[in-house]
Amino acid sequence: MSADALAVLDWPDAFAAGPARVGGKGWNLARLARYGLPVADGGVLPVAAHAAWLADAAWHAELDALEAAGPDAATLDAVRARILETPAPPAVRAAVDAFLAAAGLAEVPLAVRSSAVAEDSARASFAGVHASRLNVRGAAAVLDAIAAVYASLWTPQALAYRRRFGLTHRATALAVVLMPLLPAQAAGVAFSCDPHRGRFDTVVINAARGLGEALVGGRVEPDTYVLTRAWADAAPALATCRRGEPARRCVPAPGGGTELVADPAADGPVLPEAAALELARLAWDVADALGFDRPAQDIEWVWDGQAFRLVQARPVTALPADAPAALAGQAVAWSNGNFRDAIPMVQTPLNWSLTEPMIQRVMHTPFALAGYPLPHGRPFARLHAGRAYLAVTRLQWDYHDALGFPPERLNALTGGHQPTITLPAHTPWRTRGQRLWRNLRLGQALQRLRRGAEGHLAAVIARAAHYRDIDWAALDDATLLARLAALRAEAAGDTRVQLLLGSGGATLFVLAGLLERRLPGRGDALAAALLAGQGTITSAEHGYRLEALAARATDDAAARAFFAAEPFVPAAWRELPADSTFRRDFAAFLDAYGHRSVYEVDLRTPRWREDPGYLLDLIRARLGHTDGTPPAARQQALAARAWAELGTRVPRWLHPLLRRLVAQAAREAAQRELAKSALVAWLEPLRAVARTLAQRLAARGVLADADDVHFCTWRELERALGGDRGAAGLAALAADRRAQHAAWEAQTAPDLWLDDAPRNAVAPEAHDAACLRGLGAAAGSARGPARRVPHPDAGVRLAAGEVLVAPSTDPAWTPLFLRAAALVMETGGFLSHGAIVAREFGVPAVVNVPGALARLQDGQMLEVDGDAGEVRRLQAADTA
User: Fold this and answer.
1) CATH code of the region 182-320
2) 844 touches 865 (CB < 8 A)
3) What are the residue ranges of helices labelled H in 340-391?
4) What is the pLDDT of residues 725-779, one digit of tens each?
5) pTM score of the predicted model
6) What span, in angstroms and rounded, lies between the C-alpha atoms of 845 and 527?
7) CATH class of 771-873
8) Which residues pair with 300 in a beta bridge?
């Protein structure tokens, strides 16, 4: 084996080598050093040295046989003794000598720690299984410590741990981390989450005086600090501090190793509150750096009284499942159904660090107002392979337990293909009374907040425009950060917007339920028909006004010439003459809706005000075309048929109540869509701030490229600009995240994760093979050829009278609905944006049809029955 293969690797070389050569602990430390986090200089003796130390092939074969046989304690004692007696190969000795000399560590006390290939991974931590040696001085002692690390692979606990995970000694070959023994006023462990309750709003710190070996070995009782934050974008606060054992301190022993000594002067907490807060922030920084998609890390640290240093970080591998006790034994489901409307894409750190706390606030607000507060740190949304999924098992239970809401109806409102939870057989009367009280309380809160909601939401959009108009590039760093803090606080603190977004289906649920009791099997379809044309839906207004703009352009000679030009240059619309009526009306459209965009919750997407090309392409495709049935006529016909049916089957005395419910359900849907518009309005100035931060940090060399801003969290950017720790290593962190992002984008996202296993939806049974079943979200029936549109940019191919087949739809898709005969979506529910707008337009819609894009072909004649929730193929697919 070559000398290069055995050389001790510094942190940059260890990162490049990867965990297969330097083990989990060594690679994680190398990553932290690469990202500018506080890690002392050090190195890793690679796995190859372990193989060289035990180079005799017969020795390896003997170990294989011994492991398979299940040796007793005496046999394992003999194996460890033999390893300790085996001299270091000359090449390994030379490698260690060279590293110690080059690093200036030859006479410095060191920490020698194991770093197994499978250690400190997401699957297995090996916490406390393999040996570490502290206060090791000199090359000979270091080699003895390395032998002790190798021997620890053959303790009874190490063998049992490997068997638990189905691993062999070859799969857990050991690298060894060599670091200076850091001066320690205190040391310990910090968890970036609560490892016992699975909450992510909490940091748990165990701290002991002196070195951490006594704490890890259970020889002292540490101080325990619990720090919490309300949301992921909030600052931490100290919640509790439980004092441990003040009288002893772990210190280096004169002859090597450590010892516990009396410390009678130690009468205060191990860490001052300010230091505990700093460590909590550091724990979250580490968690974001090593895996922003699953930020649960177990961190070992040392504090010298001034600064913290990291000596280990590994994933928390055994977080409790997010399931209530009442659902014990049922699968825990996470679904992308509700998120495919708005955020189907792989999330960037910039976007997710903004979106995740936003989702948490929206989901928590109704429960808080109902008097059923939920713990903030239990996530309603998390990432799997970079894409967002909703905690649908937990959500079904919370809505049922708090308000008595039926789980199957919640699934129909939100969409997705998740299983419906099985409820306990008995509900105590006390619980029923509590649910009634909470419903009354929430209803009163909703009534208060809905009064004048339209004016409030218009004011929110105006406030966002105020921030949009700031010249962020002209501000100095301190002023920019202060204004950004104000912007983020204002955007995050509006409970009214959050509630309007999270409660848009209450009256629709009541209306459909009342109709279902009177006309079994018809409740949802009739409710959808009654809502046709009843609301002023802001995302429907996009479509109406774009159709009007197409008509205006047809009558405007300058606009016709602009649209007819080849090549077509959308940005040239601003060069139209001042008296162009199209230019005037299009500018007015952008004034009203320019903060919106395609997949508008993604900060990487330009707003329509920045790039209106998508809109102009849609208008260009509509020039000179008219639809057969005007939307108003279609809406009136649907509603009239529904009222006619009710007139013969529902008592007249119920009609006034039904009309009030229809009006209220329409208003709630309109307010929900307007609340989405208001929420998105904040993203326009935030995008402008992100551009300014990108340009400034790229110019200073903190980022390699301005686009790297999307691969940093907001906290990382703010701290980098403010001169706080975080600027060093940010470019490397962004580069590694960009590579991970590309790998995730290459993966196909499953519909569900059940107990952390990916699952795709199975199509429900239909009465014949030509029929696809889903959820009827908008009433009526229509026929037409299929047109598959995987992304709204492909919407220009949709011809009038075709059936739009889409994966999901956000508000940017809705202008396409006016030319579609019907709508078919792979996911979605009654409260999906596409369903709300389809009901408003009177376009039949069937949503939540698994695999529709793959199972249908362009041009294939379909009949879409929004009443029955069925898509019938009127001709076979072309298999030629």
Assistant:
1) 3.30.470.20
2) yes
3) 349-369
4) 667 799 999 999 999 999 999 999 999 999 889 998 776 666 677 899 999 999 8
5) 0.91
6) 13
7) alpha beta
8) 189, 312
